[in-house]
Amino acid sequence: MVAMEIEFKFCIPPGRLKAVEAALKRGTVVRTRLQARYFDTADQRLAADGMVLRLRKEGRRWVQTVKATGDNALHRLEHNVDLGTTGPAPGIDPQRHQGTPVGERLAKLLAEGGAALVERQSTDIVRLTRDVRVTGPGGAVVEMALDVGKVVAHAGTPEQRESPVCELELELKRGDVQGLVSLARRWSQQHGLWFSTVSKAERGARLLAAQETVEAVKAETPRFAGPHPDGMAIRQAVVASCLAQMLPNASEIAAGSTDEEQIHQLRIGIRRLRTALRELAPLDPVSGAAEAAEWEPPLVDAFRALGALRDREQVVTLAQPRLREAGAPDFDSLAAGDAAAADAPSPADIVRAPAFQNVLVSLIGLTAAARPAEPAPAPVAEDTSSSAPIGANAARRLLRKRLQRLHKQVLRDGERFESLDTESQHRVRKRLKRLRYLAEFVAPLFGEKKDDGGAADRYLKALRPAQDALGAFNDEAVALALYREAAARDARAWFAVGWFTARRDTGAKDCRKALAKIEDAARFWKKS
After folding, report:
1. CA separation for the pair 183, 199 (Å, rounded)
2. What pLDDT is recorded for position 373?
3. Does 450 or 518 have the greater pLDDT score?
4. pLDDT level of residue 318 (50, 70, 90 thresholds)
5. CATH classification of the domain holding 66
6. Is 202 among the domain residues?
């Protein structure tokens, strides 16, 4: 059977498992024991390509499955082969998937170097499943599966390691993906669940490598389906690229990671997403502006809460060596604020917050929303009240206008930067970031590629000096505010307050000069 899986997977807090199971059992459930063996090459070629190959005993039947990542956070390519009810485990055979897209991808990987398959890890799961019919707009039939068990690596050896599994999966069987989104939102809100990107196969791979922390995921360029996408396709692709950065980092943080780089990359992803929602809202005249307004507050709350952690741990830590060099008295500003820090939410609490998880689920649904069969002719005007989809040409014109507007605003702000108040100066930095992110998002639509030395690459490089200057200026402003707070508790902090205050005029002048240089940058969107 060939399928395109559309599903959500949520981790369940241990204290909520009984409540989730009880809620699931309000309907008819089927209990199945799933014992799976996962295969890969010795150099983990399949895992590196986002593929999974397994043999699984489902009750008394053996099923061979290959999965691969799809084109967004919800989609996975999948092909299953029922091998019958034979007793002993059958051998793994990639040829069983021959003639399918995912099977051809598997064959190509295995053909490179003639790599042999070996068993990597196993799982033992008890699954409770129930089909739920979602009524009303966005109606659908969704299979809910509660999985409880373990992943095992190096089974039967002194190096055996195990990882517990406690998760809820919701898979769309038929109907509208918005029905799946609606059900996922309701269950995640009721039971404090959080979205997870970590598969059972990946859990096993981490056990094999004795890996505690994975690398943070950085931003990627949007992948557009064709050379001339319409407005809806542009918006979906850009949001998908933001989620590709956000979801893995949020998943790790929600599970308990406090890795600074993962937190930093999640904040970058949130800022990129906020830019996408704001600047691309006109590409969806029906709901773009309303959705951006609805989703903005939880994103801002998470961004600021994670930023408060960064401000204390990074900005002040970086400032202290410079202050000591300048002759500041010995003073631990972090220790002075320990009481306040103890009351602050943890990174996991911030990411697990129901409002933030609700936005993630809604955004994933946006990227998987069905496209209109035949888009209507696109309106040209940016402020149109039409509900018709924005066509490819009109979308490009709209994006040119928004890039040009941001470019001019940054130059105008730069001319008067030194006379602006602190909050307005901070807004200049945010506007410059929006210009940068929007330029990165849409460069491919103007025939530009990332890091190829082309017009878009040159334009983005021209923004960097101003980004650096405003970033350093902002870090010092944050440090100044923190030391002002600390001065109420310890007079030694006044040295830092004076030192940073004395640097403000010079820093503002550096920002003005750096912003002025952007005027010389050739605008890549003008040439086509």
Report:
1. 21
2. 46
3. 518
4. confident
5. 2.40.320.10
6. yes
H/E segment holding residue 476: helix 455-487
The mean per-residue pLDDT over the stretch 501-520 comes to: 96
Please count the structural domains in the chain: 2
What length is written for the chain? Answer: 528
- Count the Cβ atoms, other than its own, within 10 Å of residue 250: 30
Encoded amino acid at 311, one letter: D
> Is position 229 within any domain?
no
Q: Tell me which residue range forms the domain holding 19.
A: 2-212
- Same domain membership, residue 174 and residue 287: no
Q: What is the reported pLDDT for 489? A: 87
Q: Is residue 242 part of a domain?
A: no
Do residues 343 and 455 share a domain?
yes
Q: Is residue 296 part of a domain?
A: yes
Instruction: Decide if 18 contacts 94 (C-beta within 8 A).
Output: no
Which residues are 140's β-sheet partners? Answer: 134, 175
Question: In the predicted model, is pLDDT for residue 381 greater than 60?
Answer: no
Write the CATH number for 487: 1.40.20.10
The span from the CA of 149 to the CA of 181, in Å, is: 26
Amino acid 167 reads E
User: Is 441 within 8 Å of 241 (Cβ atoms)?
Assistant: yes
Confidence class for position 227, pLDDT limits 50, 70, 90:
confident
CA distances from 483 to 314, 474, 476, 502 (A): 14, 14, 10, 14
424 shares a domain with 299: yes
Pairing of strands 75-82, 194-195: unpaired
Q: Any idea which of 7-11, 186-190, 342-346 has the lowest mean pLDDT? A: 342-346
Type and span of the H or E element at 119: strand 117-134
CA dihedral 398, 404, 406, 412 (to 10 degrees): -150
For residues 27 and 130, is the Cβ–Cβ distance under 8 A? yes
Residue 391 has pLDDT above 60, yes or no: yes
CA dihedral 232, 236, 239, 241 (to 10 degrees): -130
Question: Residue 357 contacts by C-beta under 8 Å, 6 or more apart in sequence?
Answer: 188, 189, 193, 194, 195, 351
pLDDT of 4 above 60? no
* Structure confidence by residue, pLDDT tens digits, 329-362: 887 766 655 555 567 899 999 999 999 999 999 9
Q: What one-character-per-residue DSSP string does 318-366 give?
A: HHHHHHHHTTPPP--HHHHTHHHHHHSPPHHHHHH-HHHHHHHHHHHHH
Tell me: do 272 and 162 sit in the same domain. Answer: no
Going by their DSSP bridges, the two strands 51-58 and 140-153 should be labelled as unpaired
Token duo for residue 73: 């956070």
